TrEMBL record:
It comes from the Eukaryota. Residues 1-19 form the signal peptide. This is Amidohydrolase-related domain-containing protein. Residues 263-338 form the Amidohydrolase-related domain. Belongs to the PBP/GOBP family. InterPro entries: Amidohydro-rel (IPR006680), Metal-dep_hydrolase_composite (IPR011059), PBP/GOBP (IPR006170), PBP_GOBP_sf (IPR036728).
Length: 339
């Protein structure tokens, strides 16, 4: 997966750091269009039909929610990122109670697509006038965060060895680790030297308690203190994470985990990571013709001028966004078949 993501990531030099970042923006409608493409390009009427409860439509719905960051199969719906879609009176939280009540009535053992669809109906019915075409910040996934660590290590020329010691020691200990944190914040779109931190995105990505007002308040106080102290650039950015985002936020945990995962992947690169003879065989065998993603036709826009490898990547993308465990026919871990 890291390789797959590397192909689509812009690898810039230090100079472009301030101007470009990997933050992801999507509108509900653009996500939906991508999902309809993944499933059945012949029938574009699905783009406009949001409340049909057949398998096809509910799976498009789940795909859309995954793409805009409001749903994961493991955790179900994610309330905090969902808040970005609410255009109503921010002081009136009645709608939120209504959504919670509606969501609590969804039976837990429903089919994944149908469960996502039920949640979708709950939030659409209470969130009022949602602008379907307005692109919004989509919180990054673990893999995207790990890719940012890989990019930053490359940009800052941090060796595999150094990355491992960064992962093993507290983050404020070395200049390298503080600069890595700064690069991470910038490339994920959370911070820039010109505009400072983006509190909206930090809240959507890292908050653990759905209370933006107190998040902003405690963050603001801490940030003010940092500005009054005279830190160098890297220490300043790193302290945003270690000091200002340690309260009701999982920023430090998420970033530490991403650095740890990349360091670990580099440490075991001689044992896993590709299918070279002698390496341990970790693999999923995916059947894209069964379960929720059958009837998939690759539209010509996705197949033209593509090599067999690239076509395979398209199939993988399709699995990532609209497949689930029904499409996984075999699982191998360290050479042993476990499913
Ligand atoms: C496309 O889907 C709509 C709604 O599901 C259905 O009414 C229509 O018959 C379908 N059209 C084709 C060509 O399959
Ligand atoms: C709060 O919003 C709900 C709808 O979500 C509405 O029925 C209610 O009247 C609002 N309350 C106030 C005080 O505006
Ligand atoms: C912060 O992020 C939000 C959501 O992506 C965006 O709408 C807003 O313009 C950003 N604010 C600044 C100051 O860049
Ligand atoms: C497999 O990974 C090793 C690193 O352990 C690398 O040297 C080799 O080029 C890779 N092979 C392929 C085919 O990607």
């Amino acid at each position: 997966m890291l390789n797959l993501l590397a192909r689509t990531t812009f690898l810039g030099g230090v100079i472009v750091l301030a101007a470009y970042h990997n933050a992801n923006f999507k509108s509900t409608n653009s996500a939906r269009q991508e999902c309809v493409l993944y499933r059945d390009v012949q029938n574009l009427t699905l783009i406009g039909t949001r409340f049909r409860s057949d398998l096809e439509s509910t799976c498009v719905c789940r795909c859309e929610l995954i793409k805009i960051g409001l749903w994961t199969d493991a955790l179900g719906h994610l309330e905090i990122p969902t808040m970005q879609f609410y255009n109503g009176d921010p002081n009136n939280l009645t709608f939120l109670e209504n959504v919670r009540e509606c969501v609590s009535e969804i039976p837990p053992n429903l089919d994944l697509c149908y469960r996502a669809f039920k949640y979708y109906k709950c939030y659409v019915s209470y969130f009022g006038d949602v602008n379907l075409d307005l692109p919004r910040f989509v919180p990054s996934t673990d893999l995207q965060q790990q890719q940012t660590v890989v990019d930053c290590a490359r940009i800052l020329q941090i060796s595999h060895q150094d990355l491992r010691s960064i992962a093993a020691t507290p983050l404020l200990e070395s200049t390298q680790s503080k600069c890595l944190l700064r690069c991470f914040l910038i490339r994920q779109g959370f911070f820039s030297d010109a505009a400072g931190p983006n509190r909206t995105r930090l809240f959507a990505q890292f908050a653990t308690v759905n209370d933006e007002r107190s998040f902003r308040y405690s963050f603001g106080k801490c940030y003010q203190r940092l500005q009054d102290e005279s830190w160098d650039r890297c220490s300043f950015a790193a302290r945003i994470v270690t000091d200002c985002l340690s309260y009701t936020s999982v920023a430090l945990e998420q970033i530490t985990a991403a650095i740890g995962a990349v360091a670990h992947a580099m440490a075991i690169a001689d044992k896993v990571g590709n299918f070279t003879v002698g390496k341990e065989f970790d693999a999923l065998l995916v059947d894209t013709s069964v379960g929720p993603i059958n009837r998939y036709k690759l539209p010509s826009a996705l197949t033209e001028h593509k090599s067999p490898d690239e076509l395979l990547l398209e199939q993988l993308q399709k699995f990532v966004y609209v497949g689930d465990d029904r499409n996984i026919v075999r699982v191998f871990v360290a050479g042993q078949q476990v499913k």
